[in-house]
Amino acid sequence: MPTTRLTHWSALSPYGPTSAHFHTGVTAAATAAGAVPDFEIRTALGRSGTRSMDRVTALAVAAIGDLIAQPGATGLVDSRTAIVLGTTAGSVASTMRFTRDSLTEDRPYLVDPARFPNTVMNCAAGRSAIWHKLRGPNATVAGGRAAGLMAVNYARRLLATGRADTVVVGAAEELSSERSRIDPHTDGSTGAPLSEGAGVFLMHRAEDTDATTGLELIGPVYTRMVPEADAGAVAIEEATRALTRADLDPASVQSIAVTGPLDLGDRALEVFPDAGAVLRPEDRIGDTGAAASIFALALLAQRHDTPVPGMLRSNAPAPGVPRSSTSVPGMLLAGIALVFAYDEHNLVTAVVRVRGGFR
After folding, report:
1. pTM
2. Using CA atoms, how far apart are residues 199 and 184, in angstroms rounded to an integer?
3. SS3 at position 224
4. pLDDT in tens, 152-190
5. What whole-number distance in Å separates Cα of residue 211 and Cα of residue 6?
6. Does domain 215-313+328-355 have CATH number 3.20.20.390?
């Protein structure tokens, strides 16, 4: 089955403004929530071109800049590189503030026109492309917590149809008082504190790269609308079908990552007996909205130099010790993994192969 690979990566998260902070936080089993610490737009990106830039755009621009500056990535990115970003609704803060100003400011409705582009959902993807001079296909995929996986599938289609050879794919979400006011009125709360962040990967056709680290997407990403009460059972059914299409045995699944209000129940470990613990980015960094499923992918691909209970396991756990509680230094959650995202009745399922851990 044709596959694509996600190789280089970058992340800004509540752990800190770099992927190194994310790696350190995950491998230390630390928890964090809220805004990206020490991230000021003008400090990170400079004063030029940032006067009217909103926070979600700045997070995306910074993450992509870190990605394409990495050793090995520079030669893979050119002007034809595509960008696909996941979002919930763009910048909720920008939309609500601009709308309020248009109603409350003195006639003739003295709003700041420079801030109008921030109200459009594809602002972050568009400005990122302009900032980094990437002239390939540019797309924004709206899907809440599932947006990251949906963006990965869109990027896969760009590669499969020859529209692009390399895609920067990911998602971003900002933390704001406006988002905090809206969140209690939306379905599917995870109970995790609201957070923000951005994560991006460099994605290629599998045959075009010999990278030994990162993730390999096996087949397409599957999407299905399902009521929350049935979501757990349907997720297992969807994953089983996806594995069958890929000629993989359910027993080959080594790890599972889930984001959103999705409870797989005990049935998951019956169907996927070697899967170990179910990982949730919300347990580590809070509810990062559209970026959540990208962080779920990033969680799976972190190489650990020290044992991390609940994250890694040996193939032969000690007697009386649960499989998901043991680990071996230098191991990672290797092999076949399932990734689920669920938001507003939208269930998204992906099968990936972890090829080697990011550091």
Report:
1. 0.90
2. 25
3. strand
4. 999 999 999 999 999 999 999 999 999 988 876 565 577
5. 9
6. no
